[in-house]
Amino acid sequence: MSAAIENSAPPAVAAKFTKTDFTRKKERSERVARFIFGAMALLMILPLALIVGYLFIRALPVLSFDFLFKVPIRGMRAGGVWPALLGTIYLILISLAVATPIGVLAAVYLNEYARENSFTRVVNLAVVNLAGVPSIVHALFGLGAFVVFAGVGRSILAASLTLAIMTLPVIIASAKEALAAVPRSFREACWNVGASRWQTIRHVVLPNSISGILTGVILQVSRTAGETAPVMFTGAVFYKAIKEGDVFAYGLFDQCMALSMHLFTVSTQVPDVPEALPYGTAVVLLATVLAVNALAIAFRVYLRSRKKW
Amino acid sequence: MRRRRWELISESLVEGLIRLCGVSAIIFVFGIFYFVFREGSGLLWGGRFSVFQFLTSIEWYPTSQSHVRYGALGLIAGTLSVTLLAMAIAVPFGVGAAIYVSEFCSPRAKETLKIVIELLAAIPSVVWGFIGLTVMNSLIIKLFNAPIGLNVLNGGVILALMSVPIIVSIGEDALKAVPDSYREAALALGATRWQMVRRVLLPAAKNGLLAAALLGVGRAVGETMAVLMATGHSIRIPTSPLDPVRTLTATIAAELGETAVGSDHYQVLFIIGILLFSITFVVNLGADLIVRGIRGKA
């Protein structure tokens, strides 16, 4: 700002305001601070670019269309990732089908019904704490509750339910935000014409926030795809033979392979894997996650640009 | 009239369902504690296990034929060392980046940076672990002449990169919560931005930044796959950053697959789970209380 003033002032006036040592020192410390904080911010971007670039280059030898749609062969030392990819898709779809309705209704409760009291505070606290539970503890819970206690056994169902509980708090948080963005006057107008609380929610609040809720759900897809620990002991296995290109290969009570687990397996458990294979698996997983995230972000930017109120 | 009654009934059913879903988070938190406790309780009260030994001995021999010992001190030390190193890197960088994003950069750059932070947070932990296993491993061997690159340093750096995004986003929220009138007052007195940040913003946002650091700690303590793959597999109290360690989470992930359901070894892993759950519960509760403290005052 000071630079702009100096430039616009006539030379004669500018000469009167020579900088004192104090000002110079002040400005130098400002420049140093700006540089250091900028460098710190830059150091966060750098890893993302380096990691993605490096993984991609190392993975190039195996990356192809076939890699996605072929089954692993020779003890997972060659072939593709199809069973793992399909397993991950199953886990995502089932866990979201469970978590989304519960999460959205919970957000409706917190935003539309709950009063400002200590009980609501406890509910909010529970949501925060549920989000902070380590993924391996979720795995223990899934094993204890679904696999052993409910007798479901290690299966897609048990793994999906475990993932659903894990994603629940984040869906609640994002849905709550979307609901809170609907102006209060919308609700008041609806109440004034005699609609009940639920009718207002059903016909006014939900339609106006559905896209925001959807963005939150899309973000959960990427989180679910990357989770390893919770599925490791509840339903995912190292290897499962399925037919190539068979989309309905898994049943609800089958065990399955998962992309994240497959990366762990080929990079630590199988000896003599060709170099590029784990890199290829990592790139497929990373590309899925980042693509889904980019989609959600683009969707959000688009929504914000055409917001009407 | 009949239709009206049906509508009333269905509406109260829906509201009941909404209330049930509303309290589901509480049910699940208690459910997690109950089921993890339930699986571990047989050993906990069974007399073959001493809490004192669990917390103070470094002898972890859960599968020994002659003399089984469950001393988790080495695992606790492993978790502590990796978390401390990660926070020593991530807290300054995270807070610095948060200050830059919130105070120094243009609105356009701010949007871009926030998107990058979001993408960084989305990288799955198993991919981070893979990076630790491959890239960081060979880098550490080359730079430090270490015999093996899977150690505290590797895990710490990976965990730092993983927890920076959460520290930045919560830290930025904390800075945003400081009223603009504070900034304007400082700038009007002739302070530069840096002086304003140091003398006004940091003291005012102190609690929020502390909460951000705490949430980073919670994330680092609970992280599993990345440390499982990046820290090596040796149970001990580390004396240098180049020592390999084994954390609490990695122990569960590495050993649970080999145990029979209901065996002592299986149960002791659930006891570790209880310990982890308690640690993160306290850390998250602390962070939440601090954040709410600020909101109450402001």
Question: Main traits of this protein?
Answer:
heterodimer, A: 309 residues, mainly alpha, MetI-like fold, globular, disordered N terminus, B: mainly alpha, 13 helices, 2 strands, 1% strand
Protein architecture, described:
The complex is a heterodimer of chains A (309) and B (298). Chain A contains 13 helices and two strands. With 309 residues, chain A is mainly α. In chain A, a hairpin with a 4-residue loop joins β1 and β2. The longest helix of chain A has 39 residues. The longest helix of chain B has 34 residues. The model of chain B has no long low-confidence stretch (mean pLDDT 87). Chains A and B meet through α3, α5, α6, α7 and α8 of A and α1, α2, α4, α5 and α6 of B.
- Computed over alpha carbons, the radius of gyration of chain B is 24 Å
The CATH superfamily of the largest domain in chain A is known as MetI-like
Helix content of chain B: over 70%
Q: Can you count the helices of chain A?
A: 13
Q: Summary?
A:
Chain A has 309 residues and is mainly α.
Question: Topology, please?
Answer:
The complex is a heterodimer of chains A (309) and B (298).
Chain A: H1 2-8, H2 11-16, H3 21-59, H4 65-69, E1 72-73, E2 78-79, H5 82-113, H6 118-132, H7 135-149, H8 156-180, H9 184-192, H10 197-226, H11 229-232, H12 259-269, H13 276-305
Helix pairs in contact in A: 3-13, 5-8, 5-10, 5-12, 6-8, 7-8, 8-10, 9-10, 10-13, 12-13
Chain B: H1 2-22, H2 24-44, H3 51-56, E1 60-61, E2 69-70, H4 73-104, H5 107-122, H6 125-144, H7 152-176, H8 180-188, H9 193-204, H10 206-222, H11 225-230, H12 248-255, H13 264-297
Antiparallel strand pairs in B: 1-2
Helix pairs in contact in B: 2-13, 4-7, 4-10, 5-7, 6-7, 7-10, 8-9, 10-13, 12-13
